[in-house]
Amino acid sequence: MIEQELSPVKVYDRDFHYMQLALDLAAQGLGRVAPNPSVGCVIVKDGVIVGQARSADGGRPHAETQALAQAGVRAAGADIYTTLEPCGHYGVTPPCVEALIKAKAGRVIIACHDPNQSQHHCMERLQAAGIIVTQGICEAEALVLNEGFFNVITKQRPLVTAKIATTLDGKIATSSGKSKWITGDSARRKVHEIRAVHDAILVGVGTVLADDPQLTVRLENYNNDPVRIIIDCDLKTPMTSQILQKGAADKTWFLCGSHVTEDRRDDFRNMGAKLVSLESRSGFFAPDVLLKELAKQGITRLFIEGGGVTLTGFLKAGLVDRLYWFRAPKLVGADGMNAIQPLGIYEIEEAIDLELEQRIMLDKDILEVWRLERQ
User: Fold this and answer.
1) Regarding the domain delimited by 13-147, which CATH topology (the fold level of the hierarchy) does it fall under?
2) What is the pLDDT of residues 311-322, one digit of tens each?
3) Which of 77, 133, 143, 305 is the most buried (most CB within 10 A)?
4) Which residues are catalytic?
């Protein structure tokens, strides 16, 4: 990240506490604010929180303006914690930098720099107005939180998270194709929690044909399903599929080949689905081209749920950032269906390296969260 030079300022222990509160607020917006970042803001005056907010669904209003509205005149001289550098440009809304200056903030504590704001000199403008500015409090956590947003800026693709649910011997189904249910209730609930913090869920048409999934978030008091994205080069998905039924199709996208006829496209459009055309090769889309297109469409956090062919394609391309691997204490044997298809690896030096970030017990099942290391 490009950082702006700031004058040395004192950092207080309380800064980490209040910034963590702001990060917790921001985390609540993941999966709800794309293509914008999810930002948290906490305003503290004389040791009392007088305003706090996260980016609203869709990304606006911004966290800072909402928190300032709560604080009112109490924002004058206050410490204002924000997880991302405040915006400095006029867009859909006026710049948050100007709102902070107008409120006469005493200190503005920023977790991390926003590369989109480099040309607006936001922090210098705050300092010029007599506001003390501190940057870098909980920076590592803030960068991870909005990794998808930063990926779109720096890599022109979303953050890519993938999920596998297997037996202990790495199988996703028996030899007959039966897979319900490999993991237990707690593991399946965790999958819904992971879905909830992503902008979109991606599966191949094979998963749709085999399982007829809903691809929704089924959690109590949750009302914001991610976009469902189906890789379906030939538009083979049946019109009776659950993802095309009333109330579902309007958040379902199909990635299809340019060769598909207009009549077939109209079948899907008439159901309310969105079609995104891509050039295919031998019935497959290049993963990097696919991701670049999804970034253009506003997706910053993508969750790949299947199937094995789809996941393998992204792994071979080196385009998976994080892998959630659910393992159940079951064995089905060598004739079961493999979670990962051949990767074309012949030398051990070519193997994909992973770093374990977390291990969680979910009743009898184990969830391991792996970060894929870049070569």
Assistant:
1) Cytidine Deaminase; domain 2 (3.40.140)
2) 999 999 999 999
3) 305
4) 64
